[in-house]
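As a warm-up, study this chain.
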Amino acid sequence: MTKPLSLSDFRAVRVILEPDDFALGSDEPDQPPSDLIAEKTWHGIMDLPDDVAVRTSAHRGQVLGEVHWIWERWVEAIGEA
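Now compare it with the structure written out below.
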């Protein structure tokens, strides 16, 4: 059985990109959902990746931070595609 994370845990809330974050496309706001996925289907797709991400980030924060730093340097070195 799954359980939600406390909303005080920053990992509990998802974020999405703004339209102007994309290289191509319109800067217009996103349309509201027109065919929203069922909650049961969503959880079937997303719970395992969420669980792995939350458990890993709870105990490997320093290593994840270092890998993220390396990734940032790589993007700076080669530029954005």
